[in-house]
Amino acid sequence: MIKNKDRKGYIGASDTKYVIGNWETKTFEKWWLEKLGFPTKHFDNKYTLAGTYYEHKIIDALNITDIEKDKQIIVDRLRVNLDANTDNKIYEIKTYNFEKGFDLKKHKDYVNQVQVQMYASDIHNAEIVAYGLLENDYINYFNDIDKNRLSRHEIEYNEKWINEIYFPRMKYLSLCLEKGKFPNKDEFLEVLKNGY
Fold this sequence. Notes:
Structural class: alpha/beta
Radius of gyration: 18 Å
Number of helices: 6
Oligomer: single chain
Low-confidence stretches: none
């Protein structure tokens, strides 16, 4: 459960969709301004709040000994918050509307987020734990966890994706963040070609 919502100066694992996405959109611009420290409004809704409040209860329902919650790892400009982990495994908690179902193939962003968590933590073993919420769960955060609505999805570490897709873009964005400037696709390609 993330207590500090200040996201300036660092890029998180949950930001991976921006790192590898299109840098020329309004959505990216808004996100980048937040990273540079310009004030932005943070909105919570019943879905994000329920996810936050049920996170620790879901972790507890896994009944895993020696599990650590809310570990933060900082590697240069990368700041990763793990929902839960042991010495040899990461557990990323996701909630969803149970009536709509959960299909991991539709959540590539989740998989990429976990890839970055594995890279930063050097724990190359992870799973996404998905929990389906019912309508009452969005208004009553005190419901017990129904293990029949819990699913676990192993994620295999993809070192090639980290090295060839993620890391070059993350390294360039980190330099831009340090210089307080907007990233430029042409400059990135030039840097990629000639080296940092």
